[in-house]
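We store chain and fold; thus.
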Amino acid sequence: MDGDPSKEGMFTMRLKVPAGYKIAPHFHGADEHVTVISGTIQVALGETFDASKLKTLPAGSFSVIPAKSHHFAFAKEETVIQLHGQGPWTLTYVNPADDPQMKK
């Protein structure tokens, strides 16, 4: 939406997450600011995916996840989130095998 997450400076992007989508434990090099635009996303801190720890963030919710905090998420329904932060943006999976870009 604004800025370039691969470059130095502020950026804003929107992501559509499909129903049933699981986001494996990961972390970012900068604070992650998330606003839930529509739907519901569940998020928790931790190095392993544990559904019992998930906290529900409905539409209209806002959350800040501090830099380098290991976290994971799950979308029960199609959800749109707005993410803004400081670039260059990084996403590192706790378990590199969970990186969907590395799977073939």
